[in-house]
Amino acid sequence: MSVHIDIEGLRPEAVAVVPSPLAELGMALHALSEPAHHPGLQGWVTGVTARLDPHLADRMCEADFLWRTTFSDLFLPWAGLPDRRTLPGATLAEELDQLDKLSDEQFVDAALEFTCGGGTGYGECGPTALSDPDTRRRALDLAAARGPRQLHFGERLLADPPRIRAWLRQFLRDCDEAFFAEAWSRLRHQLAADARHKTDLLRRKGLAEALAAVSPAITLDAAGTRITVDKLGDGRTTTGDGGLLLVPTSLGWPHLMVLHRYGWQPVLHYPVGSPELAVPQTLGQLALRMTALSHPVRMRMCRHLARSAHTTSELAQVLGMTAPEISRHLAVLKKAGLISTRRRGRYVLHQLDVTVVARLGSEFLEGILR
Q1: Which one-letter DSSP state was computed for residue 281?
Q2: CA atoms within 13 A on the CB side of 254
Q3: 136 with 129: CB under 8 angstroms?
């Protein structure tokens, strides 16, 4: 499973690396709502939460489905503007003005994506909940299934989009005043430095090198016409006659997000400064390792291999199995990269790579939240 971006015909100058204060505010709201996703931000989350005005905290809960799952495309409004080449604003105020330029149909469709599971299919062109009664009914049914708050918000959104737009704009301004302006004053320098570095890579070494520096989970095919992002999900979009945006986030690890909404400019929203996993495993390799460890015989083998190196014969004897059976299980563990093998004289010794196994929890979290 992966997300593909068709970039055939994309000119080099149509690729830009630009920080976005509104996108970072969206990620800040997400981290405050789902701190377990971001263990490295525990201190910041605790500090902000402790001094948050109770009224603002209540408002934050009122529509947290716009940013709790990850965050809505409403936090990337410049990608939805008609020319599909608009860059993020330099300030939050500029980007809130860009948010105002989205049509009511775009605003509602993006809001419904996480409010109730969607109006129009995410990667498809189709009727919107504002224009089509069947789509509207389905959206409200899904909202009702998710709870009374989602249903109430969905009903208000569909009945009076301008009112909800004004509510969201004021809420984001209040968040900026309460905690985000201070955070952005620190984060913007790191994000600007990363954007300069990636832009320099683009100019000197090309898109493939820049994408590899963004994340090992992003690859460009040999023809240079398709970007593939290794994610636990499927999607497809195209730059068409528009551009491609790379937007760094300091608060975002482990989320590597791809905006591939129909008709919007494709965006890669990627984390910077995330030392937890320097080289994330592919989802295929992660699945291979977890499958290898799930077999009860191999779990018992790992218990012995974690303590010391063993030969095939030693394992066969201690586990009461034949050497060929042990060899087959060892081959599975070795293919998954879970054991190391070394020769000592005429003996071949196998040992569990405990460092790799210890990382599996973090790799699993990174993989499913990427």
Answers
A1: P
A2: 22
A3: yes
Q: In Å, how far are 46, 185, 186 from 258, measured between CA atoms? A: 29, 26, 25
DSSP, collapsed to helix, strand or coil, labels residue 203 as helix
- Report helix angle 21-33 to 54-62, nearest 10: 100
- φ and ψ at residue 24, rounded to 5 degrees: -70, -35
Name the helix (H) or strand (E) containing 306.
helix 296-307
How many whole angstroms separate alpha carbon 134 and alpha carbon 291? 43
Angle at 298 between CA 295 and CA 301, to 5 degrees: 155
- Averaged confidence pLDDT in the chain: 89
Residue type at 130?
Answer: L
SS3 277: coil
Model pLDDT for residues 252-295, shown as the tens digit of each residue: 888 899 999 989 999 999 999 754 444 556 788 888 888 898 89
In this structure, what token pair is assigned to residue 153? 């918000």
| Residues 251/65, Cβ–Cβ less than 8 Å | no
Q: Which of 106-110, 118-122, 230-234, 283-287 has the lowest mean pLDDT?
A: 118-122
Whether the CB-CB separation of 63 and 168 falls below 8 Å is answered with yes
Residue 121 pLDDT level (bands cut at 50, 70, 90): low
Q: Parallel, antiparallel, or unpaired: how do β-strands 267-271 and 226-229 relate?
A: unpaired
